[in-house]
Specification:
This protein has one helix spanning 9-22. Helices cover 58% and strands 0% of the residues. The protein contains one helix and no strands. It is mainly alpha-helical.
């Protein structure tokens, strides 16, 4: 899986959701 690092409000929000999902 390749992750593209992009900065933006939407990307940050998705990143937070991803962290919450992966930490469970």
């Amino acid at each position: 899986i390749q992750l593209t690092v992009v900065r933006g409000p939407i990307v940050e929000e998705v990143h937070q959701e991803f962290n919450t999902w992966i930490s469970q």
